[in-house]
Amino acid sequence: MLSRRNFISKAALTTAAATFAPALTSAIGAAQRSSDTTIQNSPLSEKTLLGYRLPAKFGLGGVAAGNAFHINSNEAIEKAMEAAWNGGVRYFDTSPFYGYGLSERRMGLFLYGKNREDYILSTKIGRVFEPDPNFKVNPNDIWKGKLNAKFKYDYSAQGVRKSVEDSLQRLGLSSIDIVFIHDLSPDNGNMGEKWTEYFEQARKGAMPELTKMREEGIIKAWGMGVNRIEPILKAMEVADPNIMLSATQYSLIEHEDALNRLFPACEKKNVTIVSGAPLNSGFLAGKDRYNYSNNIPEKHLAKRQKLMAIATKHQVDLRTAALQFCAAPAIVTSVIPGASSAQQAAANVASMKTVIPKAFWQELKKEKLIANNAPEPKIA
Ligand SMILES: NC(=O)c1ccc[n+]([C@@H]2O[C@H](COP(=O)([O-])OP(=O)(O)OC[C@H]3O[C@@H](n4cnc5c(N)ncnc54)[C@H](OP(=O)(O)O)[C@@H]3O)[C@@H](O)[C@H]2O)c1
User: Fold this and answer.
1) Looking at the domain assignment, is residue 374 inside a domain?
2) Does 372 reside within a domain?
3) 340 CA: nearest ligand 1 atom
4) For residue 18, which of 350, 347, 285, 252 has the smallest C-alpha distance?
5) Looking at the domain assignment, is residue 371 inside a domain?
6) Distance between CA atoms of 20 and 163, rounded to whole angstroms?
7) How far is CA 311 from CA 27, 215, 307, 360, in A?
8) What's the gap between Cα 145 and its chain centre?
9) I want to staple 83 with a disulfide (CB 3.0 to 4.6 A). Which of 71, 94, 342, 357 is the partner?
10) 26, pLDDT greater than 70
11) Is there a contact between 57 and 327 (Cβ–Cβ < 8 Å)?
12) Residue among 32, 72, 180, 281 whose CB has most ligand 1 atoms within 8 A, to mutate
């Protein structure tokens, strides 16, 4: 691992109400059996996956730490991280974009007190920030509170070094393990069709630079951090990433495309997957939003109701089922739900130890609510 000094010398949604729907996570959890084991990654020899593998199937996402949807206090985020840590979580994902630096500052402050070798940290590149004295709150922004900064997209080699260096300053830590190229994707509202032009900049700049940084030992792994499949497939064609953060693409609500196109392609290239937004930004925990928008498609609301009815019948908590479902495929090396409170973080950790009856998954398949070829979580 390169020291910070060396690093420096090398450096060239909408608003949503936080309405928690208790009906979705009601008392049914009480009837569930808890196991001593959490869902683990199978040994490397079992699969021919050579991509970067995280120590455990479960991590913590940093969107909530950036004040997504509502303001969360420093204390609430610290307690959420503490609850996750005490529950055994050792992988944390953040980004300069999450609250324009706030998530990195908060996560860094918590992790500062830990031994560096005891946890894995990922952050992202693609946006470079600078202070903005004229910053004005935009009520439609996903991030709440004062941001006091502005950014420009930069997927060049220099942009990567600059962004990583800035992240280290905000985090107050000496190293980052994984770097994801963030939001270089057709669903990025600032890019749309033009995402391929940004991709071209990344192909020539960010991607070879990240490979170089991996070879230099500065980072352990890199990949795309996106909410669509295409940029991941394209990156694997033109570069040699070893891990991908795929968000919103594999959940109980929608997963066929990831299952049939993304996972086989990653397996072929020995690239592992971190599954982001496993609750569809809280939808599967009962929130009134779907994938960062409060414009929820009717078909998803209807599907959630059907899932809920079967979950209640089998005395299964839907959020628990959602998290385990995301973790089940062998290629998924970690699932990283976000949490804005200690209670949420602890509940999510507990979910990974909860035994769900096989009959539940079978009924979901029979009712065509999940794909027949979707791996079923196994926990005993
Ligand atoms: N392009 C990318 O690279 C990308 C995109 C998306 C996500 N990600 C990563 O994936 C992580 C997870 O995504 P996410 O945090 O946006 O969405 P998520 O994990 O699907 O949902 C998180 C939200 O669900 C609610 N929640 C979580 N646990 C709960 C519990 N036990 N009980 C009740 N509600 C609960 C909370 O909402 P409230 O805070 O409102 O209570 C929380 O903020 C992110 O944090 C980020 O690290 C990456």
Assistant:
1) no
2) no
3) 39
4) 285
5) no
6) 35
7) 12, 47, 6, 7
8) 22
9) 342
10) no
11) yes
12) 281
